[in-house]
Design the sequence.
């Protein structure tokens, strides 16, 4: 943030996720307590018109201080199952914005709005995107990525299935830094005529948008942003939810797959054979089209605008919009 010219001031709290029996089990609660007056002082000096916060642990001292100072706030939560921090302070927020209706029901906030998940700008040209990854006319592209958590199982499934996959489709594979060398070795082990059909990348960063545009099917985890971006491109998915982190990803995956936009594959069941089976969807145009249509129905590509409308409303004291108006903005049908 400082490199982008945005001022950043940190609170002293570190995290609330200490798993081991170490000094942080004692220090983390102390840091949290100290962060409340620290947040109070920062907000009292700045007197912002409104606060926008996501559901991390930093929201606890911030929203507690904002409530005392009567500064309006918008709290956004992207997972179906809200984390402990959100459950603790949600009622302190003036407005709650969520990605899934189930979250609003669980938190029972009197001013909760389903906005969807804010995502990056989606402006890649489909033809240019496909060309960037070597896609030829009529060729199907399978995008596989694991996010930052437990990517090894997904990588192993790709490498085990690689000869079978590349005979049928072009594979774009985001491996993570640790898996990139092995991916290059797996590529070299393919027959010469198939090597170009496997494109591994350690990371894609800003090119991830192009990859989503280019792909016909994606395989990945169930983070809120991942699902929102796939939906924005009407991209069918096979979701392999990360099995830990209190099951948040599994609930996200269940909610998204219930609409027909994705297949849900349990982490322990995901291997090379299952990946080949999933890729078979690309040979079934009717099923693929149905999933694509379901993803399009789930999309809220202007969720960021919808959240911004709520922030501006509480900042200026204007009446809050209706859920219908927020929904129209999030889907790109309103202003």
Sequence:
């Amino acid at each position: 943030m400082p490199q982008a010219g945005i001022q950043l001031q940190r609170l002293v709290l570190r995290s609330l996720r200490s798993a081991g029996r170490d000094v942080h089990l004692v220090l983390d609660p102390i840091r949290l307590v100290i962060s409340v007056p620290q947040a109070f002082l920062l907000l009292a000096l700045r007197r912002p018109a409104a606060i926008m916060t996501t559901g991390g642990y930093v929201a606890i001292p911030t929203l507690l201080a904002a409530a005392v100072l009567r500064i309006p706030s918008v709290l956004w939560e992207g997972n179906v199952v809200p984390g402990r921090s959100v459950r603790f302070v949600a009622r302190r927020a003036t407005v709650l914005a969520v990605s899934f209706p189930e979250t609003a029901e669980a938190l029972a906030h009197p001013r909760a709005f389903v906005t969807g998940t804010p995502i990056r700008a989606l402006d890649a040209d489909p033809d240019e995107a496909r060309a960037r990854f070597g896609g030829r006319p009529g060729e199907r592209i399978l995008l596989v990525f694991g996010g930052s958590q437990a990517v090894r199982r997904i990588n192993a499934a790709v490498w085990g299935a690689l000869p079978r996959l590349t005979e049928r489709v072009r594979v774009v594979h985001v491996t993570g830094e640790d898996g990139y060398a092995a991916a290059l070795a797996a590529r070299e082990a393919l027959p010469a005529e198939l090597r170009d059909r496997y494109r591994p990348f350690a990371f894609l960063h800003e090119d991830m948008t192009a990859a989503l545009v280019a792909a016909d099917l994606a395989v990945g985890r169930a983070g809120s942003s991942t699902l929102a971006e796939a939906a924005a491109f009407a991209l069918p998915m096979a979701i392999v939810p990360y099995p830990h982190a209190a099951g948040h990803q599994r609930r996200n995956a269940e909610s998204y797959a219930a609409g027909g936009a994705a297949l849900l594959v349990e982490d322990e069941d995901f291997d090379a054979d299952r990946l080949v089976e999933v890729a078979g969807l690309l040979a079934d145009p009717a099923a693929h089209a149905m999933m694509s249509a379901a993803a399009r129905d789930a999309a809220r590509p202007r969720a960021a605008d919808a959240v911004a409308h709520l922030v501006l409303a509480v900042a200026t004291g204007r009446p809050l919009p209706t859920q219908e108006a927020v929904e129209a903005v999030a889907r790109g049908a309103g202003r």
